Amino acid sequence: MTQHSFASVGRTAPMTHHASCAARGGAGVLLCGPPGSGKSDLLLRLLDAGYELVADDRVILDGGRACAPEALAGILEIRGIGLVRRPFRPSARVALVVDCAPGHVGDRLPQPAARDARTDAPCLTLDPFHASAVARIGVVLDCLAGTCQPLAGLLGDAPDAHVRSPALSPACASAPAPLLDVSPNDV
């Protein structure tokens, strides 16, 4: 039997990366960032929200798919608790790459997402410790799956999404604004 290198068929060899991965409905979310950036914390919250464990701490990427190294499959490290074994998904197609950046605020309407060279998935930078991090990931996955429509920002601009602030729309500028009581702790 003839063996082919990955390069000879237009692919790179599978590589192990310091990252974590969860999946929802088969769509993988690859969590990247340096040690201590919140990957494992965000992974734990994704699992709590119903996502499936694919890999924690080390991820093998092969042709846009993610899986755990065999010795780590189903093992999750939880800071302050230790190592636990959990049910896991053997692999998932990477649909979204999240760059964990503690303290990252982000633009209200960011430019369209860059694509990850390893997986061709869109990249999202977010603060993994923010209360809405899991919900934001869910919205992006919904848009990628076609169950919601992105109008402007990270996933691209729609032609009819022109009004971005009251200053751009006289009708919006003249409308009365509701009064909101927002304390700094609510933001």
UniProtKB/TrEMBL annotation:
Supply the Pfam families for this chain: Hpr_kinase_C (PF07475)
Q: Which residues form a coiled coil?
A: none
Q: Which UniProt keywords apply?
A: Transferase
Q: Domain named HPr kinase/phosphorylase C-terminal: which ranges?
A: 16-84
Any single GO BP term: regulation of carbohydrate metabolic process
Q: Which GO terms describe its molecular function?
A: ATP binding; phosphorelay sensor kinase activity
- Name-wise, this protein is Phosphotransferase
This protein's species is Ameyamaea chiangmaiensis
